[in-house]
Design brief:
The chain is α+β, with helices and mostly antiparallel strands and 91 residues long. The protein has one domain. The protein has two helices and two strands. A two-stranded parallel ribbon has the order 1-2. The longest helix has 23 residues. The radius of gyration is 17 Å and the shape is flat. The C terminus is likely disordered.
Length: 91
């Protein structure tokens, strides 16, 4: 499942907690734990720092939709005639 995790821009976690002090980690620990747990569960996760603007959220959703459509289209054009070409939506 593709998941967009919204958070305050000040709490955007790095990809890894290596090299950070406990005090630095404490600032974004919750966000890091959420993102890393979702990824460990096999989800495609994108973290997005958003505060007052809705435009970055809309762009992320639209970009994700275009990517999903593109993947489905590619998959449907490479399947065999006996395979369904309808893209499945997972939840």
């Amino acid at each position: 499942m593709r998941i967009l995790v919204l958070m305050h821009p000040d709490f955007m976690p790095p990809d890894s907690s290596d090299g950070y002090t406990a005090q630095e980690i404490n600032a974004w620990k919750t966000e890091y734990d959420v993102v890393s747990t979702l990824r460990a569960a096999g989800h495609e996760v994108r973290a997005l720092g958003a505060q007052d603007e809705i435009k970055p959220v809309r762009e992320a959703i639209e970009s994700s939709s275009r990517t999903w459509f593109s993947r489905c289209w590619r998959n449907s054009t490479t399947t065999s005639p006996t395979t369904s070409t309808s893209p499945a939506i997972s939840s």
